[in-house]
Amino acid sequence: MPPRTFALDLNRTSNYVCQSCIASIGRARPNPQPWLARNASNSARAARRQRAPMTTKQLEEQQAQRFQEALMREAQKGEPAEADEQGPTEKLDINYFNEETEGQYRRLRDGAEFGAVSGGIDSEISEAINDLEQKMVQTIEMLNSMEKIGGSEQDKAEELRKQFKKILRDKYKGKTGPEGESYGVLRIPGFSGVRQRAVANLNSFLARDSVVKGGVPKPKDLFDCWKYYSAARSALATQWSNVPREVWDFLWMILSHEGEGVENPNRMHHLYVLAKDMQAAGVVLRDSQQLLAIEAMFLEGWQEEAIDAWKKAVVTLGSKPETLKGYYELGVRMCSLHGDTERAMRAANTLLKSSSPPNPRIMIPIIRALAAKEGSAEEAWEVYRDMRTLLGDTMKIEDYDEVIACFLAVNHVEHALQAFVDMMFSGPMDIRGKTRLPTLVGNHFFLGKWLKRLIGAGDLDGAYKVVVFLANKGVAASPIQLNGLVGAWLRTETADNIEKADKLAWAMIKARLDFVELRRRAAAMDQPTRFIPRDGEPAPEEDFICTTRATVETFSLLAENYSARGKHDDLEELWTAFEMAELGPNSFMINQIIKSYTESKGPQAAVAFYEQMTKKRHVRPDAHTFIALYNTLAVNRVAKRDQQLEADDAIVSRQFFQDLVKSDWKFDSVDEYTYLPRTVLFSMLKAKDHAGMIVAARVMKELFNYAPPEQLLIELAAGTATLRVQSKRNVERIMEASRLIEGLIRKHTQVFADLGGDPAKMTEKEKENQLCAVFEELVLVKAHAQNAERTAVNNILATAAEEMGVYDIVFTRDPAVIRKYRKVMKDRNVEDDVE
Questions:
Q1: What is the C-alpha to C-alpha distance for residues 176 and 183, in angstroms, rounded to an integer?
Q2: Which residues lie below 8 Å from residue 297, measured CB to CB, with a gap of 6+?
Q3: Does residue 567 or residue 100 have the better pLDDT?
Q4: CA end-to-end distance (rounded Å), the chain
Q5: What does the pLDDT look like over 630-680, one tens digit per residue?
Q6: How far apart are CA 156 and CA 159, in angstroms?
Q7: Taking the CB of residue 822, how many other CB atoms lie within 10 A of it?
Q8: Fewer CB within 10 Å: C terminus or N terminus of the chain?
Q9: The predicted structure's pLDDT at residue 181
Q10: Confidence class of residue 437 from pLDDT cuts 50, 70 and 90?
């Protein structure tokens, strides 16, 4: 560990030291004060003399105030070189001392000796360096000796020398940042011991070869950099002067990185903290660092202080060509967010009139700030017009979207509509202030394009404002457009948006019920009728009266949401409204009601509702309907079951399967094709209906062209309960099931080979037949009937097939019946012929 040192700064021209000072220095102190053991600043010593303790909030405010004052001083000072040139002309005489032993001090010769003593490295590091130097000297001497021998030894020495140089060049060339700057070997000296472990970890991070590899920090570099630096800050604060400028710049380069594919969400907070630490260490911020530090201060909540620092930097940062653009762009953004639009406009004009290539898009923050002010919408519109003129043909769709979002956010829908018209039509078309919109704009097709773009961008509230505005202009949105908005609101799953979706959907349902009532009255009267909404009562104050009628999709969206949230009473009310709407029930609504009845009223009510809808009202079910029916079984709902429940569920499951076969429906997706057979087989397995499982698998093979995959076979062999809890026993059961299925597959593969087949050239049909055979043998193993006579098994299967109503499909294999009940899935080739 380097000797402890301190510097005594005397602002005088004489070398005289008073006798009392000499006596105090020479006197032995058994317990020296801690601030004598390190380089303590005047401000630190003054802080220690304060007797009254400060709260955490006061400390933070004091530190923030010092940081802000330092930034202002940096802005006024400019470059460090200029500051040195303008420094004091009077030369200071400084005496340095070193504490040799406890209480004993020695005066150092000059500043060079003080720098050597105070900047010394740790003893263990010094020893390692000396050892490395000796090895390098020995290596060079060995190479020189080999070269003197000549011949092959000389060639070998030359090759080794090239490799040695390459290793040194590649290993110790340092790190290169994104801008190509080189940082060399990075290390913070002067910290050692167990208590300085955090600094050692930071040094280890800085020494990594993988850090900033290729000049671009990786996400792990950002995370680890802040992790190790934040942990070492308290230790570094005791000796800020030991941190080299190169390390500060390297930390800044990493923490300030904001590139593509690299997320740095806490970038400004990290820079704010780092900049304060650099100011505390007396490190002069570079111009680019000052700009980022001011922006970080603004985003951390010190807005007025950041703007003051920005104003004072106009002489330095605002006058240099390399920082002029960034300086004024930062001013425009900060002043606009702070509400000082006049100053923002002046900064934008200065930037646009400068010799640097102007970017007119810097006016977008001004448009947003002006539009948010009361009575300045027209001024914001004029700024938009100026920006559009400056951009010309280079104005992009994204620029229009920004402007439209600015006006929609503050409910200036008319200006937003005009900007959208500018984007859609090349020729001038002014629609502001008109009570009736032109035909090209005043139609639901144009409205649909705008709504689609707003919903796709996630501006749902803006889309609703557009719907209300155009409805008051006589342009009603189509049901599919409002259904899209309702669905987007519901998908956010936030309370406010769900409430908005519910309100709009029920307004559409009310419009549908009013239409049905008008149609019913018109049919009952000979004279033409005029419909008055809400039975002649005055309409309450609302955003608008929705005239767009609900469709089946509207009811389906609400039904799915109510079912997922368990709002069974609201779903019951929705079903009543659905019947009154005279739209005709569909399978999706029925499925939601079945699931709701299963949870709220019980499985009997759910099955009764299904019977009523399919048998009496002739509603065609789908695959999800039967999935919902199988989920009403006790074996799928009750954790603890008895034999009577299993026997009852076995009977009911066979009835459900008969309806599944005889109903006219088709597969719509691969998910249905995968999940429905799995639900059927697992339900019968839990009910211990092994004969029904084999019959159902054979039927699905004929009608669906379905063969149980190997993964499903393993799950069936292990049981569903083993997959819910990842315990040691469950994992063992999965392994046992895997070994069982592998053994059965090997057995059938050997049979196939004995019959003259080539297992390596099995067709897809042969593989499916093999999986079906393995499945049936697995079921016999589960039923403990693997050694039963084939005739007895066939008799049991025949009885089950008759009860399930599929005997002519499984045993007689009537081609006409199979063709009649075949379920064809989209995007899947199913043979039309029957073997």
A1: 6
A2: 67, 68, 71, 272, 275, 305, 306, 309
A3: 567
A4: 90
A5: 999 998 888 777 788 888 999 999 999 999 999 988 888 888 888 999 999
A6: 5
A7: 17
A8: C
A9: 72
A10: confident
Give the pair of three-digit tokens for residue 30.
């058994």
Q: Which residue has the tokens 């109903």?
A: 663
Query: Taking a C-beta distance cutoff of 8 angstroms, is the pair 769, 698 a contact?
Result: no
Q: Rounded to whole angstroms, how far apart are CA atoms 213 and 770? A: 53
228 Cβ partners below 8 Å, 6+ apart? Answer: 198, 201, 202, 204, 205
For residue 603, count other CB atoms closer than 10 A to its CB: 20
- Taking only the tens place, the pLDDT of each residue in 688-712 is 999 999 999 999 999 988 999 998 8
- Could you tell me if 206 and 247 are in contact, meaning their C-beta atoms sit under 8 angstroms apart? yes
Query: Using alpha carbons only, what angle is made at residue 271 by residues 269 and 274, rounded to the nearest 5 degrees?
Result: 110
Buried-state track 191-204, b at ≥16 Cβ within 10 A, e below 16: bbeeebebbbbbbe
Quick check: 806 and 654 in contact, CB under 8 A? no
Is residue 541 classed as helix, strand or coil in its secondary structure? Answer: coil
Structure tokens at 638: 């009750």
The pLDDT tens digits for 240-297 are 988 989 899 999 999 998 876 567 888 999 999 999 999 999 988 988 899 999 999 9
Q: What is the DSSP letter of 285?
A: P
Query: Is pLDDT at 783 greater than 90 in this prediction?
Result: no
Q: What is the 3-state secondary structure (H, E, C) of 198-210?
A: HHHHHHHHHCCCC
Give the start-to-end residue ranges of the domains of the chain: 5-118, 376-477
* Integer Cα distance of 659 and 665 in angstroms: 11
What six digits make up the tokens of 603? Answer: 């499985």
- DSSP reduced 3-state for 99: strand
CB count, 10 Å around CB of 451?
A: 26
pTM over 0.70: no
Minimal CA–CA distance to 766: which of 777, 778, 753? 753
**Mean of the per-residue pLDDT values of the chain:** 80
Q: Edge-to-edge strands of the sheet including 104-107?
A: 5-10, 93-101, 104-107
**pLDDT tops 80 at residue 550:** yes
Instruction: Tell me the two tokens of residue 55.
Output: 């709260």
Confidence tier at 536 by pLDDT (50, 70, 90): very low
Q: What is the DSSP letter of 364?
A: H
Alpha carbon distance 420, 400 (integer Å): 7
Backbone angles phi, psi at 107, to 5 degrees: -75, 130
Burial of 260 (0-12, 13-18, 19+ CB in 10 A): exposed
Q: Are 766 and 752 in contact (CB under 8 A)?
A: yes
Rounded mean pLDDT of 301-315? Answer: 91
Res 790 pLDDT > 80: yes
Q: 């948010």: which residue's tokens?
A: 372
Cβ(658)–Cβ(806) below 8 Å: yes
